[in-house]
Amino acid sequence: MHALELSRLPVDFWSWRLWAACRQTDGELFFSPDGERGSTKRRRERAAKAVCAVCPVRDECANYAIGNHERYGVWGGLSEHERELIWRDLGLVSSAAQTAGRAS
Fold first, then answer.
1. What's the pTM value of the predicted model, to 2 decimals?
2. 74 or 10, greater pLDDT
3. CA 59 → CA 27, 28, 54, 76, 99, distances in Å?
4. Residue 75: exposure state from Cβ atoms within 10 A (0-12, 13-18, ≥19)
5. What are phi and psi of 12, to 5 degrees?
6. 3-state SS string over the chain?
7. CB atoms closer than 10 angstroms to residue 79
8. Is 7 within the bounds of a domain?
């Protein structure tokens, strides 16, 4: 296994994160604890999305999450489910994943 050499990544790969509004917020707001469901999850996601709504790098964050297939958390104002719908529309979700999603 090779370690990721950050020095070899393009500068703009990470630089947008320096301006992210979430840097001033508890990171737990953006990620579901195990077993979180229903109204509790919706409230947390709404609060996270409120931070994203005023973030100057919201688009960069959303594009990063979509392009790098970030499966967990709120990124750029998009929930896990919203990104799954985008990936499905782009043809980036396997039929097995779609079937599993319908079963839950």
1. 0.77
2. 74
3. 19, 21, 11, 6, 29
4. buried
5. -75, -5
6. CCCCCHHHCCHHHHHHHHHCHHHHCCHHHHCCCCCCCHHHHHHHHHHHHHHHHCCCCHHHHHHHHHHCCCCCCCECCECHHHHHHHHHHCCCCCHHHHHHHHHC
7. 19
8. no
Q: Which residues contact 47 (CB under 8 A, 6 or more apart)?
A: 29
Question: Has residue 87 been placed in a domain?
Answer: yes
Residue 1 forms part of a structural domain: no
User: The domain containing residue 35 runs over which residues?
Assistant: 15-103
pLDDT tens for each residue of 29-66: 999 999 999 999 999 999 999 999 999 999 999 999 99
What is the pLDDT at residue 15? Answer: 85
